[in-house]
Amino acid sequence: MRKFIISSVPLKRGVLYFLMCVCALGLHSCDDYDDTWLKETVEDLEDRVSNLEEWQKSVNTNISSLQNIIKALENKDYVTGVTPLEDGTGYIITFLKSGSVTIKHGEKGETGDKGDTPAISAKQDGDGKYYWTVNGEWLLDKGNKMPVTGEKGADGNDGLTPHIGDNGNWWIGTTDTGIKAQGEPGASGLTPHIGDNGNWWIGTTDTGVKAQGNNGADAIAPQVRINKDNEWEISTDGGMNWTSTGVKATGDKGDTGDSMFESIDNNNPNYIVFTLIGGETITMPKIVADGNTVHVATAGRLQQALEDAGIDASTATELTITGTLGDDDFSYLKANLNLLKRLDLSGLDITILPERALQGMSFETVALPEGLKEIKNVALGYCPSLRTLDIPESVETLGRWIVEGCDYLESITLHNGLKELSPSTFYGCGVTSIHIPETVTEIPDWCFQKCYNLERVFLHDDISTIGQGAFFDCYSLVSFKAPKSLTILSERLFSSCSSLRTVILHDKITEIGEYAFSYNTSLQGILTDRGWEEDNIPWPTSLETIGIYAFESCSALTGADMENTQITTIPTAAFMLCKNLLPHTTKMPRELEVIENSAFYGCESLTDIKLPVTLQKLDAFAFVYCTGLRTVTCFAESAPTIGYESFPKECKQQMTLKVPSGSDYSTWGDYFSSIVSIN
What we know:
Elements: H1 8-29, H2 36-74, E1 79-84, E2 90-95, E3 100-104, E4 120-124, E5 130-134, E6 137-138, E7 140-141, E8 144-145, E9 162-164, E10 169-172, E11 175-180, E12 192-194, E13 199-202, E14 205-210, E15 223-226, E16 231-235, E17 243-248, E18 261-265, E19 271-276, E20 281-285, E21 293-296, H3 302-308, E22 318-323, H4 327-336, E23 342-348, E24 352-353, E25 365-367, E26 374-375, E27 388-390, E28 397-398, E29 411-413, E30 433-435, E31 442-443, E32 456-458, E33 465-466, E34 479-481, E35 488-489, E36 502-505, E37 511-512, E38 526-528, E39 545-546, E40 560-561, E41 569-570, E42 586-587, E43 594-595, E44 608-611, E45 617-618, E46 631-634, E47 641-642, E48 656-660, E49 674-678
Parallel strand pairs: 21-22, 22-23, 23-25, 24-26, 26-28, 27-29, 30-32, 31-33, 34-36, 35-37, 36-38, 37-39, 40-42, 41-43, 43-45, 44-46, 45-47, 46-48, 48-49
Antiparallel strand pairs: 1-2, 2-3, 4-5, 5-6, 7-8, 9-10, 10-11, 12-13, 13-14, 15-16, 16-17, 18-19, 19-20
């Protein structure tokens, strides 16, 4: 890469020298020479060079300012002041955390006589980051776009700690300072300390050894200048190497501003908009001093900050807090701001909302910091007036019971980026509907338990696990469609969901857990996503297991077509008190071997039962209190083992048993008035 070194001083001197030589020659050849034109030319050239120098300085300053603005944006900083320059050409922008920058605005200057100036700007790419551009094109360094701000630099290496060596001198690492750690008898020794320059000092001696490692470096802002070929060139490494842009700089700079910021809109009281020369806009939020805003620079100082701002904690109804808060500050909030209706914490620089941080507060709305990563247990619990909650996009983890007792909380907004829910995350809140973001693939145990107002949960197909009791006691839930990745309906998943009417499963479901649908008094049937016909709704063919009490007291359930499933056992009380099960829509599995204790207890609408050839055993009370039973057909060649009161004895006189011709079902005789052979 060619290196160019240019200086305006040599340029000026060279021009003057050349012109003086010309002038000298002219004086020797002409008696009455008028050098007015020469003086004017020299002055004009000096003016041009000076203007170019000033422009170069201005652009490099603006590049640095733009970098600082984008850095403040990425750090979630706020504008605290906008002060116009006296000449009206721009502003001094003051940030909450990032100091201040001076910005000059105006459209890009007109093209010069024979040249132009490069338009250096920044543009946001698809990854959300800002990169440098020149004349609208990405500025590349070794083929890669140059970021405006760098990644956070790595921490420096640990510093070296002084110690006393075997020779009695102070050593720093492997360096002998030559200074005695202990004086001669009667004199005091010298103690190491860290000086203002960051080095270890011993007494008045600078050892030259750093006490602490250096911080990582930030991104390097590009610089511009004019090379000897009269072209604008740019450096991407702090001025070590320069590359020509191919843009001539011969012409004058235009008269209407610089080539960085096209305009600055400061009209909105809540934000400021920077429009760059390439049309890209940067919007920065403001902190507006309205009497309800307080900045806490140091954790633990909230009370003092409120007093300094003249805010009466006992009467405040609105409050915006910026800066940072610690545990003591959150305790003060809860204990003293009892009339608060609106709490804005969006300007806080914290990553964790602590356990019980805002528990029991009276606010109706709360804005949480965008930089938040985790919300701890019960952080917003028992806020009785909270109506809506927007979890920031930055949050990755939600703790347990975070909104428990928020009975009037109607909506919770979750964003992609959220990775982990916890058991009982939304336990006992008033939310009516919720969308689970695509970045969440597991719904933990008891996650929505006792959300009495929850009507709908929108689940994406990549959810692979829904834990036990996740929707237990969700009285208002009306429907559920199983995600494509889900294979197990966990125990007590929908227990006591008394409004649940529609359940759609697919042919990857292998298990329905214990008590999964117990006491679902509105559930009429299980549907499948491959379609169904009236009065013929087959259960998933993949289904292998039903847990005990899975459908207990589903009093509206009219059918259970298990014929084509892989089920071999109908467990204890699986359909107990399903009093509306109908015979033509209730079909036993083809591979059924065992019907356990009280499996169909109290299914009084069953009038006809067909038992498959594979059946081996009926436990006690299997069909007890099935008072409508009239016909039982069993296709097993040998009579299955039968338990105590497997059938209702009180119905003996009206019940008929049908069995294969030649088989012996005498052990079943106590329950039937007649036994009929079938071919």
